[in-house]
Amino acid sequence: MQETTTAARPRLGERIMAAINRDPRTAPHGTRNDALLAGALAVFAVLSALLTDDGRRPDALGWTLLLGCFVPLVWRRRHPLLVLAAVVAATVPYHGLDNNHIAPVPAGYVALYTVAVTQRPLRTILTGATVLGLSMSVMLTVNTHQAFELLRVSGWIIAVLFIGIDVRYYRQYVAAIVERAVRAERTREEEARRRVAEERLRIARDLHDLLAHSITLIGVQTSVAAHVLAADPERLDRETIAKSLDDIAETCRTARGELRTTLEVLREQGAAGETRGPLPGLDGLPDLVEAARLAGARVESEVRVRQAPPAVGAAAYRIVQEALTNAVRHAGPEPTVRVELYEGQGALRVSVTDDGTGPGPGGTSGFGLVGMRERARSVGGTLGAGPRAGGGFEVSAVLPIGTGREENR
Fold first, then answer.
1. 29-44 pLDDT per residue, tens
2. Beta-sheet pairing, 298-304 with 347-354
3. How far apart are CA 105 and CA 99, in angstroms?
């Protein structure tokens, strides 16, 4: 337990770097820390005034001005320019009275550094030049030797200013890196959410296509069996009933296999060695046509396709599946359906037409047409669907395959 606690606490170097990288205006407990800093510097200033240059030890007014140099430092993070002005306002008369000139120096350095680290570089340089010029003017009126001594050590003032500017730029650099990392993380999260939404939509389309197609066929085949049973109970056509029941069982097996393949994407981890089934493709079209024929439709099929990418083949398969399902459900008894697929102008062209009556006026619109359009858009294609001029219904889709070849017919 002790080792875990020690490992969780940041080391001293990490805390120091965190304090350097953090914007002083947003640091926690800033006023309290600055009060402690001002108190420590004031103690150092008092000791300097007492222990150095006995001939210029401050009097009562000098001590007041000296301590007044450090009090504004408590608010240096909130109002750096005003704090620097207050420090200068207390320092100028203090030096004008020819008191100990070393004691108030820390207050000036801290105020200058705060301005440099929080303000723009141009303002920092102008402020530093103003403070240095004002200090030189005051010292020239008091003591020429001290004025030249101030000019000699003015390099420290410039160094403090440029250290503050460098720290400011470093903090901006670190903040930019953190912002990019946060933006990248947000982008990754948004991309993950988008992929999840797309995957959910794809699963919903797959389940709709699968269940609508399978349930429609099962319903038609069950109706055939029921009709045979009710038509002439005394002369029961056992062969026809057995065939209808076999068709229902085969449809259920196919639907169960496809449903299992579709739902595998919802599992977080598959079993060892388990692989996903392949996407449905153009090679499955004969099974769709045969299932529609068993449901009572007269289907004519013509497929003239050399090759199609898996995603395009899966989209074409689902579009044909949904179109045949709609024809069986809505086109009336024994409709004539024509299915045609061919390549043309770099695209796979799909056409499913029937001569049926279409859904009744009171029918409800489902998700079939919407799903077919989404299938087409998912591979960059388009889909049109609507009644034909001569009667019946037509579904046509153009699915790009990127071959750039046109079918020679």
1. 778 888 898 899 999 9
2. unpaired
3. 12
The CA-atom distances, in angstroms, between 118 and each of 112, 145, 318 are: 10, 34, 63
Instruction: Determine the Cα–Cα distance for residues 145 and 99; give it in Å rounded to an integer.
Output: 14
Amino acid at the residue 290: E
Residue 4 pLDDT: 46
* C-beta pairs of 86-93 under 8 Å, 24+ apart in sequence: 87/111, 88/131, 88/134, 90/65, 90/66, 91/65, 91/135, 92/134, 92/135, 92/138, 93/65
Q: How far apart are CA 62 and CA 93, in angstroms?
A: 9
The whole-model pTM stands at 0.45
AA letter at 360: G
How far apart are alpha carbons 293 and 28 in whole angstroms? 76
Q: What is the pLDDT of residues 283-294, one digit of tens each?
A: 888 888 888 887
Burial class (CB in 10 A: 0-12, 13-18, 19+), 117: buried
Instruction: Return the number of other C-beta atoms located less than 10 Å from residue 369's C-beta.
Output: 17
Instruction: Determine contact, residues 114/80, Cβ cutoff 8 Å.
Output: yes
For residue 77, what pLDDT is reported?
85
pLDDT tens digits, one per residue of 353-391: 988 776 555 544 556 788 788 888 888 899 998 888 878
Residues 210 and 236: their CA atoms lie apart, in Å, by 33
